[in-house]
Write the structure tokens for this entry.
Amino acid sequence: MLEHFSFLTMVILVFASFRLTHLLVFDNITWFLRKPFLLVNKIDTDDGRSAQQITVRGKGIRRFIGSLFICHWCMGIWSSALIITVYYLVPASIYILLILAIAGMAAFIESHLLKK
């Protein structure tokens, strides 16, 4: 199984996992997925700014999933597991994974290498 696992494949899977994790945990476009598990309250800070206070809703599995949505390290494990599973079970998924990887690379470049 791993004999077909090249360095390029590893790079694609790493960046696809990075992008999927960010998509699930941070991006506004996936808020509808997080909403059943998280409660967001706007609070005013001492310096007059507005901030968000995020709390996990419910108990049991709902709380577990909510905990994943507020922890990019935790969600990263599950995103990676999903990426690897899809890669091995659905060979044509490489095109979707490549799209995620390119978006992940672009996000990494923009946020880490192009800082002013």
User: Anything to note?
Assistant: Residues 19 and 104 are 5 Å apart (CA to CA).
